[in-house]
Amino acid sequence: MTPGSPRVYLDANRPERRAELAANLAAVRARIARACERAGRHPDEVTLVAVTKTFPVSDIRLLAELGVREIGENRDQEAREKAAACADLGLTWHFVGQLQTNKARSVARYASVVHSVDRVRLVHALERAVASVRSDPLRCLVQVRLDDEPGRGGADPSAAVELADAIAAAPGLLCAGVMAVAPLGVDPESAFARLAEVAQAVRSRHPEATWISAGMSGDLEAAIGHGATHVRIGRGLLGARPRNR
Ligand SMILES: *Cc1c(COP(=O)(O)O)cnc(C)c1O
């Protein structure tokens, strides 16, 4: 397998896989419910996005049967192929990975939400893409970087409002809120507290930007405690992945 190429997404649909995914899903939903209870929130306020990168289409079909409608992917080619293979299911596709401007047009065809808008150039690429390939608006989240390491994606928190303004001003794009990945080696509580402040600043100018996409398998409780409306769960639902994915 060459780097960057997706594996073959066809999988022997083992009967025990369904039971495995059902049990994982129940466990994740229970964690979400407990975290909501502790935070005084209703579990309906938190949307579960299943991040299926590296896993086969057969798993997405099983998750769909189990009631999961929101699917996250982080590479365009893989996401595009899987969305096409699942077109009959009417799922909602979330693009959560770093996005190159030359992929904007492709992503705009199948994604309903792009979680990773981190620069004005990408806003403009998405605006042009939407104008040419889709009729309904594309929801965009401002991805905020919560450490001092540029390169892994995300805008500086000080640039978040400006990016939200650019999204809101772009025909065909909706500014839905903010997204972040808690940095390694940083307490997720403080990272998500910071994100909540950024979310508030964005929302004060763009009241419709109510989403906070935060929390993964290891830190969903902290994220929900700080207002996450969307958690992006991979391993906790699907199991271990190859390194770096
Ligand atoms: C892979 C990924 C996730 C899911 O991470 P897990 O630790 O497997 O739950 C969430 N968000 C982004 C941006 C990802 O790339």
Write the layout of secondary structure elements.
Elements: H1 15-39, E1 47-51, H2 57-65, E2 70-73, H3 76-85, E3 92-95, H4 104-110, E4 113-117, H5 120-133, E5 138-143, H6 160-169, E6 173-179, H7 188-205, E7 211-213, H8 220-225, E8 230-233, H9 235-238
Helix pairs in contact: 4-5, 6-7
Pyridoxal-5'-phosphate is lined by residues 51, 53, 74, 96-97, 181, 216-218, 232-236.
**Low-pLDDT segments, ≥5 res:** 1-10
What is the number of independent domains?
A: 1
CATH domain class: Alpha Beta
- Name the CATH superfamily classification: Alanine racemase
Strand content: 15-25%
Number of helices: 9
Please give a structural write-up.
This is Pyridoxal phosphate homeostasis protein. Its cofactor is pyridoxal 5'-phosphate. Pfam families: Ala_racemase_N. GO terms for molecular function: pyridoxal phosphate binding. InterPro entries: Ala_racemase_N, PLP-binding_barrel, PyrdxlP_homeostasis. It is a single chain. The chain is α/β, with parallel strands linked by helices and 245 residues long. The chain has a single domain, classed as Alanine racemase (TIM Barrel), CATH 3.20.20. The chain is built from nine helices and eight strands. The chain has an eight-stranded parallel sheet. α4 crosses α5 and α6 packs across α7. The two termini are 14 Å apart. The N terminus is likely disordered. Pyridoxal-5'-phosphate binds next to β8 and α9.
